[in-house]
Amino acid sequence: MQLSREQMLIAYRQMKVIREFEERLHNEIQKGEIAGFTHLYSGQEAVAVGVCEHLTDGDFIISTHRGHGHCIAKGCDVKGMMREIYGSSEGLCKGKGGSMHIADVDKGMLGANGIVGAGAPIAVGAAISAQLDGDGRVAIAFSGDGACNQGTTFEAMNMAVVLKAPCIFLFENNHYSEHTGVDYAVGTAGDIASRAEAFGMKVWRGNGCDFFAVFEVMREVLEYVRAGHGPAAVELDTERFFGHFEGDPQRYRGPGELDRLRATRDCLEAFRTSVTEAKLLKGAELDQIDFEVGRLIDEAVDEARAAPRPTAADVLTDIYISY
Q1: In terms of residue numbers, what domain contains 250?
Q2: Which end of the chain has fewer CB within 10 Å, C or N?
Q3: Tens-digit pLDDT profile for residues 31-47
């Protein structure tokens, strides 16, 4: 499927925003200004953007502890996210969510989640609500190779098949569940998609380091699910460029592994090479986006540092929702 120039520029910008957001956080965390655990998404940008460029605000996504990329790709405000991570009362969740629990229901982002495998049941619930409305919306549960071993995920996949819910189980296989290799931890020889097939749903596989491959796979998947055929699963092979969490010594990595991944499986570099060699976009256009995104992230950090923090009185607000 050929994308327009405008679509390609938007996609590159989204991926670049995620990359710069995460790389900047990597540096800022070392200064001790950000509390709590942070799990960075650098390297996996093609997945989040390749998926979410097909979605509307009415479609739902549920994310993981490694959720910044999904939030940005779904349209969450970057400055509001940075404020949230810095603990400001002006953050998307008023400083109470932090890195692992960012949400923006207006954008269809039902929340990042610090519990591995917890997103799948939530996605099924959201999918059932969309099914009852009958307006073609879908719910997508992002998860990784660790979540594929969780009972919550198995139960959610079974329920989705039984109810023919418009739910997509999207597994980002970055080869490590925290610190454990996928070939060791996943009994089906590291093949996650085959597990979903066992529940009776159709599955797709793709290269998660290639934006265009992800975009095309998701076009097919979404056409299938929106047409009322029930749930589907997708396994995308990708890489993460940082540790499981910030501060992870990564002793489980092989010699030179990270350098090799950045040199050979960088989705932004692959995108840039693909579109410039095919003369679809000019390098100068992408350079301009790089400059604009750098300025945006600088502003986001400066404003987050200066933004107000929650007060003691804020502890008792927004605890319950009044329906």
Answers
A1: 5-305
A2: C
A3: 998 988 999 999 999 99
